[in-house]
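Customer escalation, tier 2.

The customer says the design service returned an amino acid string that "doesn't look like it belongs to this structure." They asked us to rerun it and document both sides in this ticket. The original structure tokens are below, unchanged.
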């Protein structure tokens, strides 16, 4: 995507997860002890990951899946255990290195971790049965988020599962407080989106004419709030 706002935010996210937050993210996505606040984020993410995997189904044999913004690869690994052939990409080389270290011997050859933009694999002519973007679109403005989801819809066959940050009062407060910190200490801002507006934009997108919104679920657990939506063929 050549959109300047997308490219700028992508650079901020890469720098944050590849350097500033790499060790913290590695601990958060493991069973290592974490603070009370991070424990609520871990628990919320576990619930969200379980939700998306439940939507994918228990048997993914013969299915090809793209994990877009895979982080340390926890969802990708479980999808591979269920039989999927998985390509998992993330901007952070540090997180991808950690993900590769976690591949068990019995999944060798079923999963590939790659450093790159979550849209870069979409030139693959084979396409994907499923594309999952868990908490990887939440940092982008609405226009860019819609463009990303639309691009996913052009390369998926069975479903596109993604999450966004719903615009709620608690999230608005956290966003405002975050702006008080020195710029160098901030993580890339989560961009709250109104669900009705997002649904409206996706329904009106010409390139998504063959798709419709399916299931949805909001998970709010302590300092973690995220909402999942499913795109399925009409």
């Amino acid at each position: 995507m050549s959109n300047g706002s997308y490219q700028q935010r992508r650079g901020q996210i890469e720098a944050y997860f590849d350097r500033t937050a790499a060790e913290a993210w590695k601990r958060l996505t493991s069973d290592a002890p974490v603070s009370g606040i991070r424990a609520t984020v871990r628990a919320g993410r576990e619930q969200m990951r379980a939700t998306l995997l439940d939507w994918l189904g228990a048997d993914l044999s013969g299915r090809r899946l793209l994990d877009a913004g895979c982080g340390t690869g926890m969802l990708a690994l479980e999808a591979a255990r269920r039989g999927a052939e998985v390509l998992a990409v993330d901007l952070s080389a540090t997180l991808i290195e950690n993900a590769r270290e976690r591949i068990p011997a019995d999944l060798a050859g079923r999963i590939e971790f790659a450093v790159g933009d979550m849209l870069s694999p979409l030139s693959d002519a084979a396409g994907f049965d499923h594309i999952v973007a868990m908490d990887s679109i939440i940092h982008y403005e609405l226009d860019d988020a819609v463009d990303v989801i639309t691009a996913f819809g052009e390369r998926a066959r069975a479903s596109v599962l993604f999450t966004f940050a719903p615009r709620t009062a608690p999230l608005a407060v956290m966003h405002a407080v975050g702006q008080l910190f020195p710029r160098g200490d901030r993580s890339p801002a989560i961009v709250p989106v109104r669900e009705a507006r997002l649904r409206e934009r996706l329904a009106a997108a010409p390139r998504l004419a063959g798709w419709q919104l399916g299931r949805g679920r909001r998970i709010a657990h302590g300092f973690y709030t995220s909402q999942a939506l499913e795109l399925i063929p009409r």
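Tier 2 assessment: The sequence is consistent with the input. The beta strands are 64-68, 85-90, 111-115, 128-133, 156-164, 211-221, 224-233. Confidence is low (pLDDT under 50) at residues 177-186. Sent an explanation to the customer and offered a walkthrough call.
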